[in-house]
């Protein structure tokens, strides 16, 4: 998941001073190159778990929105459980590399995974073969946050509402360009889903990263976006982007004046990157339950919730059963969309 060129994804001094202690050194200690050796570990026992630091694989680059939000959660969980949670970033192949590494790790509770909607649902239809089965090789612990896609348009264009955007797009078929970080990305699938529901025809312009897309958005060459909030928050604040709707069933705390798609007249349009914590399959249930309890405590902490919102995420908790059902439903949903728009598996 790409980030914008702004420093929004970096925790501020004020955040650090509010008793949360996420200074630069502690963030770095959670991250780059801090993988723990997992060979030779003895089975974990729930009564004294965790007895040593816990490795958490994150299948995206350090500093990405999902990475930063995960670190916020883990920092609070480490306080509850009395052990460090050490982030090991393993990006690549749309999140498949890091997710596969966790799926095939020892099921002793000392290697966990933070993964998202791509590797856990959509990628099953985007790739010919996955080196893991999300529902068989992983034990869900819980979902802790979601990042809805936000429909934004260059503020110099006429549409000032979602209904006006749909009318404008229908009157200018294929003339509206939207930017993404590639085929099969969250932004691409969200836009394709939007086209299906509205009967519009847009033009997809993939970029290597958000930083490359931003200047073209501002210039009006690629004036439309179906972006995660961290990618466009700076553009919204500067007035370059006009947010028209949020692809969620509830308004975002960070954008209270922006309607949901349903409120704006487009029902059943929900698209978001969600963040979940998982363990390798066959991890002891008592360990999973202990981790879930710590995750819930962290996600419900007012300071954690505030930091989530500042990073463009909405706190949302699902238990292991709820996450399993949600992964199943999301896999089915995106499989149908991907097939309908004709994306050939990679």
What gyration radius follows from the Cα positions, in whole Å?
A: 20 Å
Alpha-carbon distance between the termini? 18 Å
Number of helices: 12
Q: Structural class per helix/strand content?
A: alpha/beta
Tell me the total number of β-strands.
10
Proportion of helical residues: 40-55%
- The percentage of residues in β strands lies in 15-25%
Taken in chain order, the helices and strands follow as HHEHEHEHEHEHEHEHEEHHEH
**Cα shape:** globular
Major sheet description: 10 strands, mixed
Mean pLDDT: 87
Low-confidence stretches: 1-44
3D structure, described in words:
By secondary structure, the chain is an alpha/beta fold. The chain is built from twelve helices and ten strands. Strands 1, 2, 3, 4, 5, 6, 7, 8, 9 and 10 form a ten-stranded mixed sheet that branches. Helix 7 links the parallel strand 5 and strand 6. Helix 5 packs parallel to helix 12 and helix 7 crosses helix 12. It starts with 12 loop residues before the first helix and ends in a 5-residue tail after the last helix. The N terminus is likely disordered.
């Amino acid at each position: 998941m790409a980030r914008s060129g702004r420093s929004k994804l970096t925790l501020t001094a004020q955040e650090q001073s509010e008793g949360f202690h996420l200074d630069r050194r502690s963030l770095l200690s959670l991250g780059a190159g801090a993988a723990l050796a997992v060979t030779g570990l003895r089975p974990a026992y729930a009564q004294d778990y965790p007895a040593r630091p816990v490795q958490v694989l994150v299948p995206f680059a350090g500093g990405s929105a999902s990475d930063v939000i995960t670190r916020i959660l883990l920092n609070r969980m480490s306080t509850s459980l009395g052990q460090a949670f050490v982030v090991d970033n393993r990006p690549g192949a749309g999140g498949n590399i890091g997710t596969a590494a966790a799926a095939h790790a020892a099921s002793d509770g000392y290697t966990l995974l933070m993964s998202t909607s791509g590797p856990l649902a959509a990628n099953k239809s985007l790739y010919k073969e996955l080196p893991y089965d999300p529902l068989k090789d992983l034990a869900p612990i819980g979902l802790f946050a979601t990042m809805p896609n936000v429909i934004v348009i260059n503020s110099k264009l006429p549409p000032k509402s979602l209904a006006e955007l749909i009318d404008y797009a229908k009157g200018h078929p294929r003339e509206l360009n939207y930017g993404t970080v590639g085929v099969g990305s969250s932004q691409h699938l969200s836009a394709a889903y939007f086209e299906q529901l509205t009967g519009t025809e847009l033009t997809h312009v993939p970029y290597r990263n958000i930083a490359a897309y931003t200047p073209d958005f501002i210039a009006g060459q690629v004036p439309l976006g179906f972006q995660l909030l961290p990618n466009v928050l700076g553009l919204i604040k500067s007035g370059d982007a006009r947010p028209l709707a949020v692809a969620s069933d509830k308004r975002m705390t960070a954008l209270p004046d922006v309607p949901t798609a349903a409120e704006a007249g487009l029902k059943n349009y929900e698209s978001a990157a969600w963040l979940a914590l998982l363990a390798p399959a066959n991890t002891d249930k008592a360990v999973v339950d202990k981790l879930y309890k710590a995750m819930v405590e962290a996600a419900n902490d007012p300071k954690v919730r505030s930091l989530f919102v500042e990073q463009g995420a909405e706190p949302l908790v699902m238990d292991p059963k709820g996450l399993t059902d949600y992964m199943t439903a999301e896999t089915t949903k995106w499989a149908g969309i991907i097939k309908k728009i004709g994306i050939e598996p990679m």
